[in-house]
Write a structure and sequence with these properties.
alpha+beta; Rhopdopsin 7-helix transmembrane proteins; Beta-Lactamase; Single alpha-helices involved in coiled-coils or other helix-helix interfaces; 4 domains; 5-stranded antiparallel β-sheet; 3-stranded mixed β-sheet; 10 strands; 60% helix
């Protein structure tokens, strides 16, 4: 058994071991994240490396110190290999870590471990050990070959992390910290292996493992490099179907997610520091209104002709903890398909409404003008019979009545044409259509019309479907009043009654007894039509 004694030289290694254990526990709790698994293993290996340094410095005999030097060296290449696996996972290149590549990456460290354990038989790694304040070793023929493999892995890590910093600005600070720490570690490791005498084993492990541990602790705790919440948030941003754009205070793009890059038609890395207004066709005034919350969102169209896409744009002002504005967040949602579906639905509704209106018009023509023409036909036959029988007086009287009926029928046709022409434009609205009809009604028949709208009644009070039915009912009421009331002034009043609207049509003619409405329906098709239309919209 080896004997040991306390030495103050172990404190740098003890601090390093504590950091390594802390980081190992931290990453183990997050082991479901791909990058955390190799880092946990690296901390495990690094802990054994550091433990070997502590025991070397505490050992009393030379043979014990040599044993722990070899023990330390066994873990060094495995640490470098596993750190490379961590770097690949952290950079999102875990797909490279296939079973085949794991085996290839492990071959060199395993061979090195085997040669170190059996060094006493071949001396290919170390030729001799000697004491010079602390144990130093003379290099064998393969020593620097294996050390070069560690440097090669370090160079590979540098390239991968540098690439990550270029394509992903949010990773730049943690990547910079990792790279600086790895460069310091390589310098310390080289000084130790060259046996410069400037640093001892404790300082060496502090520079190599300790500095790296501190750097990774800052990256993990300050920048949440392997935090599951941040990882989940980043995954959501990468996979979300909305485009996300982060702007700095100058309106330049600071970051985008992949979908935003697709929407803008440029690679993510080429969008950095570009002005948003150079890439998107939007009104800068809209951004100001969005920022002041005067409007919730705006819509923009990007693309040419057939490839054009329609997006809704939302803006959120980003503030730090003290309320100071630090940037803006823009969210783009592709609503092209939604708008196409809405257009198709509107077209279908328009077709259905047109067919329903044609059906009602056919019924009204049949019950109104159709019956009038039927009456004219029957009376004309009677007039021909009277003429044939020589009763000219009765025939003349009957023909006179037919002339009056024909005039009324012609007036009804003109009235129907006027009603159907009102509001036939693409941008239909109830109130303007009603005003237009009442103006034409006054011009055609010389009857003064007046429209009174109570507060709360405007163009948005009625949806288009209800507005069409209500307009036709008012037209029918005014037509009946013109025919029967003999009035000179007609007035249409509209007011709100809770969630309902009340419409009253009055005139200065003789009118009729409203209590007789039920008894008057037979033969009074206008009243029937108005009731049917109101029933269609729940009135």
């Amino acid at each position: 058994m080896f004997s040991y004694s306390y030495s103050s030289d172990i404190w740098p290694a003890l601090i390093t071991l504590a950091l390594t254990i802390f980081l190992g526990a931290y990453s183990w709790r997050r082991r479901h994240i791909p990058a955390a698994k190799p880092f946990t293993i690296a901390c495990f290996f690094g802990g054994f490396w550091t433990l070997g340094v502590i025991l070397e410095l505490s050992a009393v005999s030379f043979s014990a110190q040599v044993f722990w030097v070899i023990f330390q060296a066994i873990w060094q290449l495995p640490v470098a290999a596993v750190i490379t696996c961590f770097v690949l996972q952290y950079a999102g290149l875990g797909r490279w870590l296939t079973p085949r590549n794991y085996v290839l990456m492990s071959l060199f460290p395993l061979l090195c471990v085997l040669l170190m354990v059996t060094n006493g038989f071949h001396h290919l790694i170390w030729t001799e050990f000697r004491i010079n304040g602390h144990v130093t070793a003379s290099s064998g023929r393969l020593f620097w070959v294996f050390i070069s493999y560690g440097y090669l892995l370090g160079l590979f890590n540098f390239v991968i992390l540098f690439r990550l910093a270029v394509i992903s600005p949010r990773h730049r600070w943690p990547v910079a910290i990792m790279l600086v720490s790895q460069m310091i570690a390589r310098v310390g490791y080289t000084m130790d292996k060259l046996d410069t005498g400037l640093i001892g084993p404790g300082e060496s492990v502090l520079l190599v493992v300790g500095v790296v541990s501190v750097a990774y602790a800052v990256a993990f705790l300050r920048f949440h490099a392997i935090d599951p919440v941040v990882a989940a948030r980043n995954a959501a941003l990468q996979q979300m179907r909305e485009g996300l754009i982060v702007l700095d205070l100058q309106g330049r793009i600071a970051d985008v997610n992949p979908m935003a890059a697709v929407m803008l038609g440029l690679p993510e890395h080429s969008l950095q520091d570009k002005l948003l207004e150079d890439l998107m066709p939007f009104d800068t005034g809209d951004l100001g209104r969005l920022e002041k919350k005067e409007i919730e969102q705006t819509e923009i169209i990007m693309g040419e002709k057939n490839s054009a896409r329609q997006y809704t744009l939302n803006l959120t002002v980003l503030r730090e903890r003290h309320g100071e504005v630090i940037g803006k967040l823009i969210l783009l949602h592709d609503v092209t398909e939604q708008r196409l579906v809405q257009t198709r639905i509107l077209e279908q509704q328009r077709v259905v409404a047109t067919l329903q209106e044609r059906e009602r018009l056919a019924r009204e023509l049949h019950d109104g003008i159709g019956q009038t023409l039927g009456y004219v036909g029957l009376q004309a036959q009677s007039a021909l019979k009277w003429l044939h029988d020589g009763n000219n007086e009765k025939a003349e009287s009957l023909l006179g009545r037919l002339v009056e009926v024909a005039k009324d029928a012609h007036a009804d046709v003109r009235e129907s044409i006027l009603c159907l022409k009102i509001g036939s434009g693409q941008e239909w609205s109830f109130i303007p259509a009603l005003k237009e009809y009442m103006d034409r009604f006054q011009a055609n028949y010389g009857i003064r019309t007046d429209l009174s709208l109570a507060s709360g009644i405007d163009g948005n009070t009625f949806d288009p479907a209800a507005g069409v039915h209500l307009l036709r009912a008012i037209q029918e009421a005014l037509t009946n009043a013109r025919k029967h009331s003999e009035g000179n002034n007609f007035r249409v009043c509209m007011e709100r009654n809770g969630s309902m609207a009340q419409v009253a049509i009055t005139d200065d003619g003789h009118g009729f007894d409203t209590s007789r409405l039920e008894r008057m329906e037979d033969g009074h098709f206008g009243l029937i039509f108005m009731r049917e239309r109101m029933a269609q919209i729940g009135g």
